[in-house]
Amino acid sequence: MVPPTNPRTAEDPCVQRFKASLLAERGVSQNTWDGYFSDLAQFASFAWGHDAAPPFAWGEASDAAARAFLSSFGSAGARATTVRRKLAALRSFYRHLQREGTVADNPFSSLRGPRKAKTLPKVLSVGDVESFLAQPGKDYAAGRIGEREFLRDSALFETLYSTGCRIGEVVPLRWSAVDFARGTAIVTGKGSKDRLVILGPKALDALGRLRGASASDADGAVFASPAGKPVSPRLVERRMKRYLAEAGLPADLTPHKLRHSFATHLLDAGADLRSVQEMLGHSSLSTTQVYTHVSVERLKDAYFSSHPRA
């Protein structure tokens, strides 16, 4: 059974100092902190009980308790990536406590997470992307959505595919960060690092039409709700599922698959790996190299489906 979260974990002074360290010194995003906090709250509940009140005795947690905590997720069928993330979060937290002198030992330091399965990312074909990106326009022409939704959704998904950005990089985008003359935009990625991304003609055209119909100021949200606030990632996922289903494509694909598709299509067309790394904002080239394997798999699929001696 997966441990619940302890509802009072946020009151713990060690957790509060860890949060301040991550947000101020390391510049992690709020979303990253939320993930860390959930893991800490689950461990607090597992070690001291759902109703336990802070401050928690972090230094009294044993290696056995740490191992049992991680094992509970494996027994519940959690994915290897989930268990590995929790291990990384707790290990980082205890390292912080050691640096503070709050605890002497790190019960998570000697543990190893389950081996991460090597899976290739799912991607859409160029034709599938074209069908998907055309769907908001078809819905608008058929009267199924209004003009505001059409302009916003069309520009949003064109931008995601044109730039290869993560959804969390595009949703907060402001008009002041878009340079129509140069065909670029500045987005903030992981670790609060800014990078320049390229906007192709289709994306620029869609953004231009959205800007022309927008009443927001120069620093307003590009992809805004009726209240003028940036749309939520969850809303983007729902809109994508709708258009995928209407286009006859698998509805379980996510906005991140457009990022995978962006990288794979560039490499398939001859783009060099270093350039794609820069466009994706990867700090390590090895992270980008997975897309070269996708391209090889496509070549093999074409070979074995077409070669008479395959």
Keywords:
mainly alpha, DNA polymerase, domain 1, 2 domains, 3-stranded antiparallel beta sheet, 3 strands, 4% strand
Structure description:
The chain is mainly α. The protein folds into two domains: 92 residues, DNA polymerase, domain 1 (Orthogonal Bundle), CATH 1.10.150; 180 residues, hpI Integrase, Chain A. Helix content is 55%, strand content 4%. It has a three-stranded antiparallel sheet with strand order 1-2-3, with no helix packed on it.
Mean pLDDT: 90
Helix content: 55-70%
CATH architecture assignment name of the largest domain: Orthogonal Bundle
So how many helices? Answer: 13
Order of secondary-structure elements: HHHHHHHEEEHHHHHH
CATH topology of the largest domain: hpI Integrase, Chain A
In percent, how much strand structure appears in the residues?
A: under 5%
Give the class-level CATH name of the largest domain. Answer: Mainly Alpha
Radius of gyration: 23 Å
